[in-house]
Write a structure and sequence with these properties.
heterodimer, A: four-stranded mixed β-sheet, 21 helices, 51% helix, B: 186 residues, globular
Chain lengths: 463, 186
């Protein structure tokens, strides 16, 4: 039985969250199998396509996009307005959420259908709408499962990877009161029929935006299920929420990003559906929204330009760094307690919230700095470097104390004799502590905290 | 006759778990009836397009006992979405372009061709003139947005609707079409 969801940043401390995650055997198994299937897809992509060359081009495109960001956003806004849409530049998360709540009130909306949007999580849209008495329905299969479970997403792209078939069947039975067998096809067929009721009833559809194309004022919404199409085409009003960094200049660039994103995300060479929306319905058209509202969310993004963290804005939110990360594969996304988990979450959560928020002091340290995320990233963001830089920005008391220990260590190891003696002593100490085993699982004294979630090898290479 | 570009497109379609074949204008209507029959469709939701008329799809389907509704359909969303015991429906679309590399169809929204057409029903059958196939996605997209006014909506469709949200195993027929078949004409 899951706890009621609490707001992001309101959970217990990181150590407690990771302890719970590590203790959850089902979660570990589900994470391992989904990471393995991601890795297999990526190997296939590397064999079939020149992924490295595509990555270089994607990196060049995103670098240039962010350099020209204000200009591109201006152009995108102008074109969307010319196409008959409304554009709202939201400086803060609250401003974005308030705009949508006011829109729902003015419309007298009772049901809002959503396709998956991380930006909507970031602005806490569901809570805001529900507080205003509007029913919010997540229509992405994975997100809907989590909504029924009253949980938070675990992954940017595959939100419910930590739930197995039996758990999902139980949730569906509880919601519908029907007897639903726990086979995949029956579960999907049930969800399809059930969610169609909400597509037909919703007055407002809310989607995210993968990329905006400045040249023509077009919003690209990528998906595999078809729910984003229905969300953006059926309700009277479509609200699209776009992170301010998600803009490209023209269709040549857009085509490249639209291709590399699913390759990186799921090891597939196309998304099943890409919805390219250039405005509300035109004269004579009988579907498509009558009003299109584009919300461009700043929320701390624009101030990152020109800093040593600017590359975080290159991210296209594919989720590859999550699967590649040994830390994420062990604790899952929920332990991050942020809409954005994994290496990119550990980087942008502090950057968007400020380095003194409780999560900001924790997340940059939830990494082994192995660099697998950099290798997996389709736009080549040096995530491990950004994490190291962020660690330097966190200045709470325990972090300052740790810095002093590190400085002492660094001074000692600069002397070869001290270094050699230290290594010998450590090796001997570990052997004694480990007795005949090959791993030390518990260190005495204050070092015990460190080994409560880590082991040390007594021999090198470890066995 | 099938060209190399058509062959590559058909091969890419199969990788996307859709399928298709090259047919002549004369054979297209019969091929359409065969496929809808095999799927078990009782109703066809058909784009209002010159090609549909040229191929004679409406008459052929009606003769085969399949109800034909032409877009824009005045049925209401509940019926189009298949709720309230609506007959199992197949969408018949006419894409404006297709990408040989990836098996992708470009479907352009217009008064006679709703942007949601291919996604509301159970199945999706596309009538694609062979000369509309291009090699890359970049060519198709720059082509689709070359002239102003740009279309209000373009949908890229690469195979049937799917989800991997349950145990990372791909299941078809999530919210859109359960299966997709493309008749490449000419």
């Amino acid at each position: 039985v899951s706890d009621r969801p609490v707001g992001y940043g309101e959970g217990p401390p990181l150590r407690e969250r990771t302890r719970r995650a590590v203790a959850d055997r089902t979660l570990r198994g589900n994470l391992a199998s989904s990471a393995a299937s991601w890795a297999a897809g990526r190997r296939r992509m590397r064999d079939e396509q020149d992924f490295d060359a595509m990555r270089d081009r994607a990196r060049a495109i995103r670098t240039e996009n962010i350099r020209r960001l204000p200009e591109l956003l201006e152009q995108l806004s102008e074109r969307v307005i010319a196409n008959g849409g409304y554009v709202m530049r939201a400086p803060t998360r609250d401003a974005a959420a308030t705009y949508i709540v006011n829109l729902a009130r003015a419309e007298g909306a009772t049901v809002v259908a959503k396709s998956k949007s991380m930006a909507s999580e970031e602005i806490k849209l569901n809570e805001a709408l529900e507080a205003a008495g509007v029913r919010v329905v997540e229509t992405d299969m994975g997100e809907w499962i989590l909504q029924l479970a009253e949980e938070r997403p675990s992954h940017i792209v595959a939100p419910a990877v930590h739930k197995n078939r039996a758990e999902i069947a139980e949730l569906f039975r509880r919601e519908s009161g029907e007897d639903i067998p726990d086979d995949r096809e029956a579960l999907i067929a049930h969800a399809r029929r059930r969610l169609r009721e909400d597509f037909a009833a919703a007055e407002i559809g809310v989607s995210g935006v993968n990329i905006g194309v400045a040249e023509t004022g077009t919003l690209c919404v990528m998906e595999n299920e078809g729910n984003a199409r229905l969300v953006t085409a059926l309700p009277r009003i479509h609200v699209a929420i776009m992170g301010a960094e998600r803009v490209v200049a023209d269709w040549d660039e857009a085509a490249h990003i639209l291709q590399i994103l699913p390759m990186a995300a799921i090891g597939d060479d196309a998304s099943t559906y890409v919805n390219l929306i250039s405005g509300p319905r035109r004269e004579g058209e009988t579907d498509g929204p009558q009003e299109l509202h584009l919300i461009i969310l700043d929320g701390g993004r624009m101030s990152l330009r020109g800093t040593r963290f600017e590359e975080a804005l290159h991210c296209i939110r594919c989720g590859a760094c999550l699967y590649s990360c040994p830390m994420w594969r062990t604790v899952g996304g929920q332990a991050y307690d942020s809409p954005y988990s994994g290496p990119i979450g550990a980087v942008i959560t502090p950057l968007l919230e400020g380095t003194s928020s409780p999560r900001a002091t924790e997340l940059p340290f939830l990494s082994s700095l192995c660099g697998a995320c950099h290798d997996a990233c389709p736009v080549g963001i040096p995530l491990h470097d950004l994490l190291v830089r962020l660690r330097g920005e966190v200045r709470t008391r325990p972090h300052r104390r740790r810095d002093r220990v590190m400085r002492l260590w660094s001074t000692a190891w600069r002397r070869p004799a001290v270094y050699r003696a230290g290594v010998r002593l450590t090796r001997l100490g570990l052997r004694i502590l480990g007795r005949r085993r090959s791993w030390v699982t518990r260190l005495p004294g204050p070092a015990g905290r460190w080994t409560s979630q880590r082991d040390l090898p007594t021999r090198w290479p470890p066995r | 006759m099938a060209t190399a570009l058509t062959d590559r497109f058909l091969a890419a379609l199969e990788r996307r778990r859709a399928d298709g074949r090259a047919v002549t204008v004369a054979d297209a209507a019969a091929a359409c009836v065969d496929r809808l029959g095999a799927w078990g469709a009782r109703r066809a939701l058909v784009a209002d397009d010159d090609l549909v008329a040229e191929v004679g799809v409406v008459a052929a389907l009606t003769d085969a006992g399949i109800e034909v509704v032409t877009w824009p359909a005045d049925l209401g969303w509940r019926d189009l979405l298949g709720l309230d015991d609506a007959p199992p429906t197949c969408a018949v679309t006419v894409p404006t372009a297709a990408v040989a590399q990836r098996g992708t169809l470009l479907i352009t929204g217009s008064p006679g061709h709703g942007r949601s057409l291919d996604a509301v029903g159970w199945w999706h059958l596309a009538l694609l003139p062979s000369e509309r196939i291009v090699e890359t996605l970049a060519e198709a997209l720059t082509g689709a947005f070359a002239d102003a006014p740009h279309p209000s909506a373009v949908s890229l469709v690469s195979g049937p609707s799917r989800t991997s949200d349950i145990e990372k195993i791909t299941t078809y027929g999530a919210h859109g079409a359960l299966a997709e078949h493309v008749l490449v004409i000419g």
